Amino acid sequence: MSGRRYNTKGINVLEVNSAREAHARTVHARLPVNQQPQQQREFAREQIPVPSRRVFPRPATATPRHVCNNPNNPPCARCGTTIIPSPRATLPLEDCPSVTIDNWTISTRKRPILNSQEFEDWENNRLKGLALPEMIFGNNYVRIENTRDNWSLEFNALDALKHVKLEDSGIRVAYSQKWINSKQEKHKRQMPGGANFDIEESSLKIAHQYDWTYTTKYRGTEEGTLRLQRDDEASLPIDKLARPDNILFFDDMILFEDELADNGISMLNVKIRVMDERLLILSRFFLRVDDVLIRVIDTRVCIEFQENKVLREFKEYEGAYKDVILRHRSSHSHDPKAALRDSNWVVQNTPLVSRQCESLAF
Q: What is the pTM of this model?
C-alpha cells in the first residue's frame, strides 16, 4: 500500500469502535452495580468525573411495608429497592409481577395477543355470537386479593367482552345515510321511467346482531362471600390520591382494541398504581366513532390498606363528536383531532351521563 489517503464517503473505523464501546457501556450501566463486570465498574470510576459537593448523611429508612413476590427482580442500583415490574424481558414473553402489603396481594400479567388457536376457541366456545375485536390480550389481567377474607377483584378481557350486548347498538357510521341514498339513486336510475324506489327493509337488516362498538360496562370480576354494596354518598379520597407518595407498583395494559373498520377506535385499558397506604385502579373503556359519537366508561377502585376498605366508582361520559371537537377548536390548535386521541382530555370535555359508587369494609 502506498499510504495514500482516499477521500471516500463512509464511517471511520475509529468511529465504529467508539460507537460499539459506548453501546456496551450503556448496556452494562442498566445492570445493578453488583452484577456489572469488574472492568466496567473500574472504567466508570475512572471516566465519570464526580463533582465536588457536600455529602449529607442519608436518613435511616424504615423497614419496607411491602413484600415483593418476585425474588428474581433486580434491585435498584441506587436505593436497593426491588423494581416492580421487572424491566428485564423473559422467555417466554410473560411478566407476572406481584407484591403483598399486609393482607392484600396485588398481581398482574402481560402476554401477547391471542394466537390463532386461542382466538378460534374464544370465537366458537367462550364468546359465541360475538364477532371478536381485532386485538385481544386475553391472557392479561390485573388482580387484587384480600387473602384474610378470601375476597378478590380481577380485570380481564374475557369477562369484559361477556358484557358486550348481542344486539344492535343503534349506532351507525357517519357515511351510512350517504350509502343508503346512493343505493336508492342507483336503483332509481335502473327503474323504467324513473319510478320511485324504496330499499326493502330486508336488504338493510343486520344479519349478525351484536354491538359492533364493543361497549362494555364491565366493573371487574368480584369473587368471595362479601360483595361491594351501593353507596352513592361515598367518594374517592382525591386529596390522598394526589399526594406525591412513592409508587411501589405500577402497571398499564390493554385488554382489547378495535379500530372499527377505520371508523374510530374502541379500547379497554387498565392501569394500577400501588402506594404504601393505598392503591388505585382505573379501568377505562374509550369509544370514538368518527363524526358520530364519543363515549368513555371509567371504573376506579381505591383500597385503603390501613382501613381495609374498598371503594369502586363507576362513571359514564357521552357526547356528540362535533360538540366535543368544537371545544378543542376554540383553543386555536393546528390539529384539533389530536386531542381526541387523548382520553384524559376527552373525559374533561365530555358530559357526565351517570355516576355510581360502591363500598366494602372488611
A: 0.74
